[in-house]
């Protein structure tokens, strides 16, 4: 690509759509950009349940499963499925091993997998009718994060920070808190910036030890030394960047060095979990090895949004909810690890007056089937299901206690108020003050969007 084309592309991106909004804020040194409309939420905490949670064992009870337990599913006799390889053998309906009860003033159904989250249902808006596009884990996770099944697209966190910037110039706008027992498929590509400027990608932090490795300067380097080094580096970078205006990776690298310097003084204070009240630490489950990892990351998420971080994403281990066999063992373990910390996060945000300005999203990449292979009845489980999944919103701008969508009597397919992952993305952006149609970036000859050519806001969850 010659220099004239690069210059034209740079000018076009500088003057059109959200590109001008984000670019002008960077050129003016602003930390936050103006939203498209009044925002209900300033920050988003995205709780990512990897592996696919079973909807009929958590938040979508199906009494018909008890009635038809251990009988053959119709599609396994007639082969009426788009996943022939998975459903070619006889399959038997599996009743839920969990008990459902109604909770809260809204009377929402929650299984005994989530006794702590059940206490918060009046603040949650459930959507039982979300459908995916791909039943393969890597593709489905990309679709959940980017709206596309192939890598290379910006993640929802990158799009959000691209549109809004950060409220704290001393912290990254987008932080990722994975479980290091097992990272998601494709690792950092899941929170990458894709074709957006690289400075909008997520920054990974650890929950054990130093949140960011090698952030602290050597003891022999004084603040005066560091200031002098940064001044020299700025001068050299400015001279080099002047002749490379169309290189977004260069600017991202410069931004990263500047941010790292500012974070040296900020991160240790912001993420000092030991300073928290012991009762709060216990509420998050930090005293229990089962809940410690997810609990500490939930507490870190609250600390980060409290200090102005725009988007924080938490992950369970890769495929942790993927219970093809031993549903009881797998789902019980994962619920024990996450239930108490999630409820603590919601209650903590609410007590601090932060829930109204913080959007919390709980979601996985797809749901699960109401049956299992007949040959696996000793330790039965459930398989991948893109036809229906349950997720929930809470916090800024969300109608607490709302229930959206229904599935058929077995929980196999969404049948009313059907929504897609792009609709979920459109809703997140809307609550953050962004119009998903207007949030664009010129790439590959057209204005790209997180929601591509689809997406509607799920209005039933809005307050």
Can you give a write-up of this model?
The chain has 463 residues and is an alpha/beta fold. The protein has one domain: 3-Layer(aba) Sandwich (Alkaline Phosphatase, subunit A), CATH 3.40.720.10. Helix content is 33%, strand content 16%. The chain has helices spanning 3-15, 17-27, 64-67, 74-78, 137-146, 156-164, 223-242, 248-270, 278-284, 292-306, 327-351, 421-431, and strands at 43-49, 91-93, 100-103, 108-111, 124-131, 174-177, 203-204, 311-315, 358-364, 367-368, 371-373, 384-385, 389-395, 403-404, 406-407, 414-416, 419-420, 441-443, 446-448. Strand 15 and strand 16 (414-416) form a beta hairpin. The radius of gyration is 23 Å and the shape is globular. The model is unreliable at 1-9 and 11-30 (pLDDT under 50).
Number of separate domains: 1
Look at the structure and give the mean pLDDT. Answer: 87
**The CATH architecture:** 3-Layer(aba) Sandwich
What overall form do the CA principal axes indicate? globular
Contiguous low-pLDDT stretches (5 residues minimum) are: 1-9, 11-30
CATH superfamily: Alkaline Phosphatase, subunit A
CATH class: Alpha Beta
SS summary, helix count = 12
Reconstruct the topology from this structure.
Elements: H1 3-15, H2 17-27, E1 43-49, H3 64-67, H4 74-78, E2 91-93, E3 100-103, E4 108-111, E5 124-131, H5 137-146, H6 156-164, E6 174-177, E7 203-204, H7 223-242, H8 248-270, H9 278-284, H10 292-306, E8 311-315, H11 327-351, E9 358-364, E10 367-368, E11 371-373, E12 384-385, E13 389-395, E14 403-404, E15 406-407, E16 414-416, E17 419-420, H12 421-431, E18 441-443, E19 446-448
Parallel strand pairs: 1-8, 1-9, 5-14, 5-17, 6-7, 6-8
Antiparallel strand pairs: 2-11, 3-4, 5-13, 9-13, 10-12, 15-16, 18-19
Helix pairs in contact: 7-8, 10-11
